[in-house]
Specification:
Layout: E1 7-11, E2 16-20, E3 23-24, E4 31-39, E5 42-49, E6 56-63, E7 77-79, E8 82-85, E9 88-95, H1 97-101, E10 110-117, E11 122-124, E12 130-134, E13 137-141, E14 157-161, E15 165-168, H2 174-181, H3 200-214, E16 219-220, H4 224-232, E17 291-297, E18 307-308, E19 319-322, E20 339-341, E21 350-351, E22 355-357
Length: 358
């Protein structure tokens, strides 16, 4: 949501005219009344934080092109940001803009503040798989018809997830696969590379054995709705990076970026998990590297109305794949992009990540 008031401030040390378009992004609608001002060499971002939780994790990011891409180097921030921020009015984040960025270029500067309930719990299991707690909430799944690259199966609709869940921080690696299965089917070899050449059925067998080793029945594939919700991490743009995604942010075929975006490299293989920055919820490689299997049967037509805890159709011929891969064009990495394939299909593009019940 963009705040309607426009802030126009002379940044003396930059000798540029800033047009501040403060923005707020929050899946829970807890951040309100965002406003921005320059104070000396710093940028101060004020906001109100509403909600019933005792503490929140607050993140901030900045754009110099009206919100198309969020690439301002906001490394030196202080104040009411990070973990354990309590609700209240007139919260303040201080960004040391001159220290981080020197001379900035741009004419539409947007600052986006997001709050997530709790400090972001992590869980590590017996074979070293790390999970991040994704809290319950609502979001808009799919995209408007106006978004570039939109497919006919991406109709936008509201989804509510009533239960939090642990999401694998990375795609399942080859070392983790070998620890459970005792083999390695991957085409590209390396312990910290994502396992690939695995079918949906293979992934289910891995999970069955993992549950047996850990005791209980807590592990599973994510539903398609859980996957997109976790990928977006509160964003509404085509990628969690904004309207473009570079090959410095994801592993894909950089010869085919989104329209109006810059080309990049084409590595022609998988790379080690967590090679790039994570999204706002601490998840790596949600865009690119390998396609990720989801639990659902693929259904072309989304529901027309609001839905709660969707799990897809009860039967079908294909299972859902999400996220794109090392060989994909950028459009197939979009948060909303969907694909489906026979659950027995294997390819060096196909991998997965696991969720665990909270």
């Amino acid at each position: 949501m963009f705040i309607s008031k426009r802030f126009i401030v002379f940044i003396l040390f930059f000798a540029l005219l800033f047009h501040f378009f403060p923005a707020v992004s929050s899946a829970w609608e807890e951040v309100e009344n965002v406003r921005v001002e320059q104070v000396g060499d710093d940028v101060h971002i004020y906001y109100d934080l509403r909600g019933d939780a005792d503490k929140y994790k607050v993140t901030v990011r900045g754009s110099s092109d009206g919100g198309r891409n969020y690439r301002l180097p906001m490394k030196t921030v202080s104040g009411d940001v990070g973990k354990d921020v309590r609700p209240g009015s007139n919260k303040k984040i201080i960004w040391k803009a001159l220290k981080d960025a020197g001379e900035l270029e741009g004419d539409e500067f947007v600052f986006e503040v997001e709050a997530v309930s709790g400090p972001g719990k992590e869980f590590v299991n017996s074979i070293g798989m790390k999970f991040m707690l994704i809290p319950a909430g609502s979001f808009m799944m799919g995209i408007p018809s106006s978004e570039q690259g939109r497919e006919s199966d991406e109709r936008r609709h509201k989804v509510t997830l009533t239960k939090g869940f642990y999401m694998g921080v990375t795609e399942v690696t080859q070392s983790q696969w070998k620890a459970i299965m005792g083999n390695n089917p991957s085409n590209f070899k390396g312990d910290n590379l994502p396992v690939e050449q695995v079918s949906w059925n293979d992934c289910r067998e891995f999970i069955r054995k993992l549950n047996r080793q850990e005791g209980g029945n807590k592990y599973r594939l994510p539903t398609e709705a859980e996957w997109e919700y976790a990928c977006r991490a509160g964003t509404t743009t085509p990628f969690f990076t904004g309207g473009c995604i570079s090959t410095d942010q994801a592993n894909y075929n950089g010869n085919y970026p989104m329209p109006g975006c810059s080309k990049g490299m084409y590595r022609k293989k998988t790379i080690e998990v967590a090679s790039f920055s994570p999204n706002a919820w601490g998840l790596y490689d949600m865009h690119g590297n390998v396609w990720e299997w989801c639990e659902d049967w693929y259904e072309k037509n989304y529901p027309s109305g609001n839905v709660t805890d969707p799990a897809g159709p009860s039967s079908g011929s294909d299972r859902v794949l999400r996220g794109g891969s090392w060989s994909s064009f950028a459009r197939y990495l979009r948060s909303a992009d969907r694909s489906g394939l026979d659950p027995g299909g294997r390819c060096s593009n196909f991998g997965f990540r696991v969720v665990r019940a909270y």
